[in-house]
Amino acid sequence: MSGTSAPFTAQLRTRGETITFGDASASERWTVRVQLAEAWDAVTVSTPPNESVLALKRRALAVLRPDATYHEDFVVKLHGVAVADEQASLADVGAADGSIFLIMFRRRRPVR
Asked: Which CATH architecture has domain 8-105?
C-alpha cells in the first residue's frame, strides 16, 4: 500500500503534525495511527517498517502521555491482540502501511 497516496488512517483526526522517526534514508516508510485508549487521542506516525514496536510506543507516549514515567505500564495492541514482543519490528508483528495501534494501561485502573 506504500506509494504516493496516504492510507485512509492518515486522513483521520489526530493530534498535531505527523511524528516522523527512524532511518531518514529508508526506501520505504509507513504511515500508522497510534491511539491512546484512556485519553481518546491519537497521533499519526511515519516510520520505516523495520522500526520496533517499542520505539513506536515510546514516541507516541511522549506526545500523548508525556507524564508517563514507565512505558512498561502500557501495552500495545494490533488487531485487538497485545503485541507480545515489543522488540520486534512493525513488519514482523503483522502491521502494514495504514495499521492502527492501540496503547492502553497494562493493568485495569480503579474507576472513581
From this structure: Roll (3.10)
Q: Residue 22 is inside which H or E element, if any?
A: none
Domain positions in the chain: 8-105
How many residues appear in the chain? 112
Residue position matching grid coordinates 492501540: 102
Residue 108 phi, psi dihedral angles, 5° rounding = -65, 145
Q: Specify the pTM.
A: 0.83
C-alpha to C-alpha distance for 93 and 88, rounded to whole angstroms: 7
Q: Residue 58: helix, strand or coil by DSSP? A: helix
Q: How many CB atoms lie within 10 A of CB 101?
A: 23
Which one-letter DSSP state was computed for residue 12? S
> For every one of its 112 residues, what pLDDT tens digit does the chain have, with 9 covering 90 and above?
444 566 666 666 666 788 888 888 889 999 999 999 888 889 999 999 999 999 999 999 999 998 888 888 999 999 999 999 999 999 999 999 999 999 998 876 566 6
Task: Quickly tell me which residue has 480503579 as its cell.
Answer: 110
